[in-house]
Batch of 2 targets.
Target 1
Amino acid sequence: MRVRSLLAVGALLAFLALLDLAAPRVLNPYYVTILSRIGIAVIAAASLQLVNGFTGQFSIGHAGFMAIGAYASAALSVYAGAAALDAASQIVPLTAARWLYFPVLLVFGGLVAAVSGIVVAVPALRLRGDYLAIATLGAGEIIRIAILNIDAVGGARGFSLASSAHPGIDLRYESLAGVFGVAALTVATLARLVYAGGGLAFRAVREDEIAAESIGIATTRVKIEAFLVASFFAGVAGALFAHSEGYIHTNSFGFVRSFELVAFVVLGGLGSLTGAILAAATLTALPELLRGLGEWRMILYSLLLIATMLLRPQGLLGQRELWPISLLSRGTK
Amino acid sequence: MSLLEIHGLSVRFGGLSAVSRVDFEVEAGSLVALIGPNGAGKTTAFNVVTGVYAPSDGSVVFAGREIGGAAPHAISALGIARTFQNIRLFRSLSALENVRAALQGARRSGLRDVLRLARWRAREEAAGREARVLLDELALGEFASARADSLPYGEQRRLEIARALATRPKLLLLDEPAAGMNPAEKQALRELIRRLRADHGLTIVLIDHDVSFVMNLCDRVVVLDHGEKIADGPPDRVRRDPHVIEAYLGSDATVAP
């Protein structure tokens, strides 16, 4: 078992390295950008699935936490990261320093988002159903508008990662390996969390809160945990987004983005990580693939959404998982 | 010694008094029935004991500790488990997962679930075995991987009991376990309750509508009507109690000998 997991991790790393070396040569930058956005969408959708699909709390403000992760990590990079990298490059090669800094900026973005997630969750989770949804929508908008008014991160001009004090330091990461590596780590973490004996608490809360309480599950704590983990990974996704785009604006994190994430989890199937991943990948790629249709593009996109919901109201996968996550999901059965 | 003591318990919802000034005690190891017509306040009493409602007045003492108004999950951790009148299973989870959720309830592991070290694996396997033993004990073994809402009605009721037992309770509250059952099933249920009480050293309080089901099962019967206690004692005495007869049948009725 141990050997097999090591082999799997090794194979994944080799694939990622190959991806990083080959992709820029084979694909034009437009496709690389789309692939990178798919990876980021997967992280955000999988994390939202924990709250909406597994814990049954309907949050529609997830983009707000992405915004926090994006802006917090970008601010870290511009105000401290660039200087730190400049100093470190005197000792180690700049490339090595940049890759050491990469996890730092992701974890920082995630942690700041997680803290804000708790700040939102503690009061908001006193609400249920539609009321919770509206509260999270409001929280997401408050976050966006608050950031819009902070001049230190560019305000309405948007925030660029080009650092004027350290012009030689590139803070952008155009690495598919980085994005997909983090996506794999995120999905593996969430799957292990949910498909374990302890993870049954999330699903028990979704199924019946009163019954869950009656068997000793502290439902409020479980909901806050779900929110905490989900907003952490949303923050990581935001940090990845900021550092792969190199420029961020609050418009990228409005309620349209939040709704898009909700569409991913609902369309994929509430309670299926694989479903969220498939839907996030498909629906991120689809508008690009439909570009040839000009102004009919978004109409067709919407019609496809409507048709899917009519034909499969439970989502693409319902609550099922596909390989390799199904290996974990069968464990608790 | 009394395991559960209820003193002067009142529950009001706005102007409606669901339970008013009710006292009763449950001795450790006993099997007590709580009966009464519809709307008598039986389930409300259960809901207060399990923390779903806070008492408006009065006290609920379990194993020497005041639990009135405590959170349901905290009360569960103290050793009170229950089933529900309208079955409340985790519908889309398997029968085994329903029981495992209760085994795990109090001890969530978070980071350990993510890391999955050797000790974690051993603990998960032990929990899986324990859940299977409970399913087998309630003759649900063959349904282990079936979705809870796909089970036949009687099996769903037993699964609720298995889930309650998984919390390792001292006191088990059964809310109308015999509802919707025919006489043969009721008889089997009586046997089951006796067996579980003996095997798990349980104290049991069960709710039912009528005296006949609990007659040769319970040690004591407490009768509620319109939120007040009208009788309390051994089943055969309660059955002859004029207040009880009046509550069930009206004031002119008499009981056939």
Target 2
Amino acid sequence: MRYARFIAAISLLFATAQAFACGPFIYPPSEYYMFHLVNLPDSPDGDFNRNSRENCLLWQQQTMEDIPLDDIYQVVYKYNLELITTLGSGILPMEAKDNKMARWLHSYHGEKALEFLVLAKNCEWLRNEALSPWYYPSKNDQVKYTLNEVAEMARQKSKDYYYGDRYALQAVRAMTSLQQYEEIVNFWNEIERKLPDGLMRRMTISYVAGAYIHLNDVEQAKNLYKLANDLNGLLECDLRYQPKMNRVEKMELLYEVYPDCPDFRRQIWEILGHVEPNRDWEDDWRWDWIYSDERATIDQLGKLCDRVLNDKTCADKALWAYAATYIAHLKGDDRKADRYLKLAENCVKDRNLSDAIKVMRIFIDSQISTYDKAYEQKLFAQLRWLQQMIEKNLDEKVIQGFCFYDLTSCFSYYYWNDAMRCILLGTVCPKMIQQGNTTLALQLANMSSYSLLNEMPINLYQYRHSRSFNGYDYCNHFARMADSLSANAMMAYTEVALRPKTEFQRFLNAHSYIERDYLNEMIGTHCLREMRYADAEQYFSRVSSGYFVRTNVYKEGYLNRDPFSVKQRKWNHGVDAKLCFARKMNQLEHEIASATDPNQKAMLMIDFGIGIRNSFDYCWALTQYYRGWVYGLGEDGENVDLTQQAEKRVDRLFSLAVNSFTDNEYAAQAQMLFGNFKTIAERFPETLAAVIVKGHCDQLVDYHAEMGF
Amino acid sequence: MVVLASCTSKTTNVGTTTTQAEQHGNGIYYWKTMFELNDAERGFLKEHQVKRLYLRLFDVVPAENGARHEFEVVPNATIVFREPMPENVEIVPVVYITLDALRLINSPIHNYAEIITQRILNMADFNELGTIHEIQLDCDWTQQTQDGYFAFCQAMKDELKPYGIQLSCTIRLWQLACACPPVDRGVLMLYNTGTITNPNTNNSILDVEDVKAYLKGEAYDLPLGLAYPTYSWYVWFRNDKYMGLFHDQPGKKIEAGDVVRYEHVSFNELQQLDSLVRLKLPGADQAPIILYHLDSANLSNYTNDEIRQIYSRD
């Protein structure tokens, strides 16, 4: 029975060691949105959320600044006629006691506001309820006024200092319900000059436009709808309008009636702003990966762009050309995209759009350029500008967002930074790697990962030296890319990072993270992975001893595992576990080479093999920075090719060692290590190991155990 | 009478109790869009002790919803009240549902049974129509729309139940051969028996011979009231083509060669009708009589005594 436990302990050496070392949080370039329009106009009037918020803010200005917007919203939009009427009668209802707006209205300050709200709620009730074709008054109705009375009172009150514009809106609402269209126009003519700009004026204008439609003056109605930014109203005046039109069909009609509509910018962004090809470097992007509905919409928008760009009267060609550029790119035609982009560059007037077009230029160039020295120089200039934009547009919101997302999960949600990552990580780096220019690829990846971090007003020294998990340095795109490349690639990169020769290299370094220890430790780890133990020892020796404790694998305790034991046991090596391991492996390699006694040499080979095997398995933290399954990616941080090479080497070593023994006691000891008890019993029955096997196997099955090594 | 009553033993639901006629008393429809009685009409109600006024409140018709460009049903031609209800007359609100509206009325979106009920009750409350015991639906449902109509009747009945209000509906002659709608009682409409647009029709309001085809001596499984026509009109044709209807004397539109057919039902014909119905519709002799409709000009075609005889069925 005791032997059964021994067998189990040995077999664990070769079991898969699962560990979850909080591996990289991958935010692939496919989630960095390239198409971007800034300073989008507010959604048009008629958007309840927008109007209600603006209205509540206005109420806040007109009442007390410390009344919460939600309290205002409740009173203005949620209180029914009965509740407002109760308030108006001087009673503070129970359900209103905790509402600051209701309390303010109840105080003597709120008299005029309350008077207005009673009228407005009456008007609303009458319009909503009474105008339903099914309405018939009942004796229980709470209405205080008829619509005629509301209209008349509101017209009178529209001249008042307090809430005059609000009364004007109620007047036109009531008159609309009463179908008094001529009166509405007359009223508008009276108040037009006096009515202040703002939400109430815009909403009033929409009703006046509606009245003009009933008076068959559609052109005047259209002009007013434009003034009110009421695009639905504007579209509905057109006979071609169909409610079931899709969004692009509505845009087409809108273009015909209002070609310079500022809202096109928002509408185009809503279609293209979140369509991003998957630019992860393992996959090629394909147009048909977009859902068919979305594809149809984009296709239709592309046709509208072409139509608009052929229209000489179009005033905002740059916008449409910018959209057409991106659509052409999505459809895989970057040459066509380039032509559209040139058009956009030639006619852009707006500064914000101009910046977005410049970003798109960097992107399209990265798609169509030949990656040569000339392109590198162009890229240098482009990145210099993009870096300026990253720094220039930094504000508190970006900083807060960064600290919340990027520092913990490598998300940035900051356009300029996202654009850089999208272009470099999604297109330039993969192409550079394909061409064998891994050094520049790593430099660009490093900059794209660190340029924003370096601008942050945070104490990075403290962050990196704390005992907490470092969610950035080993989880970002640079780390991920470095992890996928060879030790030689890292060595070459580090050489340039530490000793730059060109202006471009210095620029990239200035916005990267190139701490010597960080890079040398990474090279050392790569060398362990490639079983280059002498090189590993050399690079780990360059790492200051204090650095090792800053790595996540150390902090998480994954380096406390003995790589030279067949049993899983603790290893008290101090902080520089990787260096110790590299040194011992290097030493074993030399001893194997110099050993003359075949039995001793074979035992050294077995020790060496165990070290290799453990460093890819139970002691994976020696060769990897993370291991575990990442949700959505299924990665485990393991370089499968290198692991397989290591396994083959271990097999060869063990096989060679077993065949090299000339002393049966050594040979039996080695078989004991591997758990090959049957072999010991059959081939080396006279040895001490065989005596132990026979004496400890309680059951036949144990006696016949054979691990196969 | 006794013989007839004994013969109608199977007509358990048709005029089952002799009290139904007594209970309901004399009835008459009011089918105008404005409730305003003249002296003659007020006098008629009083003279003939009319107990029940079947008052059309509104029609239900389809309409296009402007905002959504979808069809929905809406009330139309809602009656306007110019004067209070006469005393001692029970009001039975009637709602006329067009066939097109019927096709939309069982909407999954709107509970029209509830909406219509609420509107009727609001109208009754607001215009002080008195306590409502019964509401009547009038609809020319067909075999194709029967299921929808019956479903709607059931929904209305369910709506009215909490108020203790019963539901009745009008029954066309041809509908006697169909299943009964799920209502509490019906009113058999014994008029509009002919095709008004046919120039060869003698009298589209009533041809007793036409009625015979529908009455086969079989019972109807609902308590029925009987609606008799006391109206008249002028039907206008040109080249055998139906041109329109006049309630008064034809106007200036009439040209030489046009044919105007005056249609009315004489007292004699009403008596023949009553005899036929009593003979061929089991239990009909105990059914309440409702005249269509309260209009002094039309009713002036009959003497008070004739009206009395129609109601009392002497």
